[in-house]
Amino acid sequence: MVVVNTRFLQACRREAVDATPVWFMRQAGRYMAEYRALRERYTMLELCRTPDLAVEVTLQPIRRIEVDAAILFSDLLLPLEPLGVPFDFVKGEGPQIERPIRTESDIDALRRFEPREALAHVLEAIQLVKRELDGKVPLIGFAGAPFTLASYAIEGGHSNHFAETKALMYGNPAAWHRLCDRLATMVGDYLVAQVEAGVDAVQVFDSWIGALNARDYREFVLPHTQKIFAMVAGRVPTIHFGTGTATILAELAEAGGDVIGADWRIPIDEAWARIGDTRGIQGNLDPTLLLGPTERLFAGAAEVLDRVDGRPGHIFNLGHGILPSTPVERVQALAKYVHQYSARR
Amino acid sequence: MVVVNTRFLQACRREAVDATPVWFMRQAGRYMAEYRALRERYTMLELCRTPDLAVEVTLQPIRRIEVDAAILFSDLLLPLEPLGVPFDFVKGEGPQIERPIRTESDIDALRRFEPREALAHVLEAIQLVKRELDGKVPLIGFAGAPFTLASYAIEGGHSNHFAETKALMYGNPAAWHRLCDRLATMVGDYLVAQVEAGVDAVQVFDSWIGALNARDYREFVLPHTQKIFAMVAGRVPTIHFGTGTATILAELAEAGGDVIGADWRIPIDEAWARIGDTRGIQGNLDPTLLLGPTERLFAGAAEVLDRVDGRPGHIFNLGHGILPSTPVERVQALAKYVHQYSARR
Known about the structure:
- 2 copies of one chain form a homodimer.
- Chain A is built from 17 helices and 9 strands.
- By secondary structure, the first copy, chain A, is α/β, with parallel strands linked by helices.
- The first copy, chain A, has one domain (30-280): Alpha-Beta Barrel (TIM Barrel).
- In chain A, the strands form 2 sheets. A 7-stranded parallel sheet of chain A has the order 1-4-5-6-7-8-9. In chain A, strands 2-3 form a two-stranded antiparallel sheet.
- In chain A, strand 6 (238-241), helix 14 (249-255) and strand 7 (259-261) form a beta-alpha-beta unit.
- In chain A, helix 10 crosses helix 11.
């Protein structure tokens, strides 16, 4: 008999749980030997685009770590290709967009597509993962938010200063809003398709949104992200995540999400106060603590749990993804510790 | 007769001024054609290490932009070479350290040096700039703070996640503190030498400190940065700058600085409230606003000045350095606008 683990979904609804649910951003990834073994044979894009491989990678952490949710192995940038913005992952440099978006005509040339066709392999992977999981833990689907997706498409890859992105945003607000509206509609459709394929919750990643202040967030981003959450609302629980967001948490909450992710730069109780008591919170341990000694790692986790003080609606996670140099044993120990420490309270 | 511009130093002392003083981080740099012309003939390190060239670059913005202070053209990393950590600037990739610091023996092998000998070219440039400026505007000296310097030395260059830096910090706190103590003593000596050579104020750059939360800042950084400010205190006004610091501004103020720098992620009045009323504030316009239209740039500057509301102790600056793609006319217009708008109040 399969024991159905419902902690994660209960916490999304701010219900009481037997122990704090935990999952980790990038819980499938280079820190695991079995992932690295696959990456020796396949490129990142091959893993993402081949349902059987995406399923295998999604399940790798489920087999070894006491996590309360699986997250589909995929990449934020996958929808860029059918939009007409092809890219690849370049070793040691991350994603590289072939022809970055820079002009209004680039924006107008973006293609509309049906995610059920163009990203059918993602939806197929979701169905296969759900079958494999057989209810043991819920499955989280995800997509990038308009600012973060736009920043990759405009900068051509990862960016430190978002100079081109903000130059377009400030310099041609009409074009910016047209781009973000297109991205929001696309992301909303894509997430709805993921829900229909079987995901139990979705997370919207606005990973780099901390580059904006509240004023600019409100003007340039909020309405678009709001549109995405409106499209998914009522179907499954939603999580809204970004980094460096201490000064815009209230705005992120306003844009949407049943649960708001916070990073380690702000104490989680202060973050929750800014988010408000109508939302759950996810976070917020510094992922680099997994690179240090266990005592300090556990002390950091205990501090997060103590600050939350058992209040329903907390999902334990890191403030950002697991880093490649992380020892897998440390991740295993952390998940166990969070469960034991929170159950004992 | 030279008109002596004292606005900047008055603001450092929180005295009333006729107009808000303004200068820009990286006001000398690639956005200026005359700088790019020099860079065609000399490397970045040649410019830094040749007093006549450093003087020329320092003065370039003074000739074209209504700034109220000059800042010595130099680089945070210059002291790494005499410490025994050689580096170079690699085109398109920024600084690269030849052999990053990773072990206790790397730390113990760091050399002590006398900045008046090893960095004599910097001190000579200061004396020459002071002569050229002839009191027209004050000259700011600077150095990197221990966390930021350590992060370059440990990571080997610019970093997104500071994984190696934090792994050392968490994993071997004793070694981390020994490294930061060495860096703090070195930086303090170097800044004192700069003051003796003639700088009118100093800025300590802890550019990447926003990667830490308040707890870690207090344990791993505060005592070291405090030591630097204690060494310079009472000689000239001091500015303490970092980015992404919304949640640690009170701790930065506690570490030291007559004036605390804030970036654009936090409204400047909120930042000042966190810093406290015994300090001045510097900032905090988003540098990417210089890439957009003038109206939006001016609106952003007006918002900063309105939020400060004429309170003595404000130095107008960007939240980080001028970006290379910035049009010089926009910088000229911004400085003028800040003076006119604040004088009219």
